[in-house]
Design a protein that fits this description.
Arc Repressor Mutant, subunit A; alpha/beta; 40% helix; globular; five-stranded parallel β-sheet; 13 strands; Rossmann fold; four-stranded antiparallel β-sheet
């Protein structure tokens, strides 16, 4: 998953980005509203973590713009304000959730997962398909009841493909979803991760199909 973190506290931003990166997510960081606006104009994000009080403006204006143009990107607001009226106004503007500063990183990750599940139309972390079971929260994959260890990027790639079965993803789109601006990665890296996932999914009934010249799609078993 690719996240945008909009936070002017550099120490907090670094800690949050490091924690999410350890889970295999790509994180772009903007410390100002102008930078965040530039990022969202050129990149599709799976989730935005948005601070309100920024050096060059109010983060709520960015949130309001998203919803005005019918951009449904999930947004979790990071706020130090404890007043009920402030939290209500944030939700009324279209935020999917909020978390009060200071917060525990495990709670932040749990809220991210919950928001992404809701936007994906599911209420749980476990996906069963054919002889495969995948738990995005535990980061675990099993095929025919046998546990398989996934590296972080493999896990996130599988998560993306499982989220939209039969959807064609180009290599460029997968690079965009898996890596941040700070990571210099060629599209050949996607071939490596796809090859690894295919080996893990042998005998599961689930396959990753190559559409020559266009990309990849996950194909569920014929049941």
């Amino acid at each position: 998953m690719r996240y945008l973190l909009v936070e002017d506290n550099l120490q907090l931003a670094s800690a949050v980005a490091d924690r999410l990166s350890l889970s295999g997510h790509a994180v772009d960081h903007a410390s100002e509203l102008a930078t965040a606006t530039a990022f969202v104009s050129t990149t599709d994000y799976d989730l935005i973590l948005l601070d309100i009080m920024l050096p060059d403006g109010d983060g709520r204006s960015l949130l309001q713009h998203f919803r005005t143009v019918s951009d449904e990107t999930p947004v979790i607001v990071l706020t130090a304000r404890s007043e009920v009226s402030d939290r209500v106004s944030i939700l009324d503007l279209g935020a999917d959730d909020y978390i009060m500063k200071p917060f525990d990183f495990s709670e932040l990750e749990a809220r991210c997962r919950a928001v992404l599940r809701r936007r994906g139309g599911t209420a749980h972390n476990l996906v069963s398909m054919g002889k495969m079971q995948f738990d995005s929260m535990a980061g675990s994959l099993s095929v025919n009841g046998q546990a398989i260890v996934l590296r972080n990027k493999e896990l996130r790639l599988l998560e993306i493909l499982l989220g939209s079965p039969e959807t064609l993803f180009s290599k460029a789109r997968l690079v965009d979803r898996l890596f941040s601006y700070d990571e210099e990665v060629s599209e050949n890296a996607i071939e490596v991760y796809v090859a690894r996932l295919r080996k893990h999914l042998v005998n599961s009934g689930v396959s990753i199909e190559t559409v020559r010249g266009l990309g990849y799609k996950l194909v569920p078993p014929n049941e």
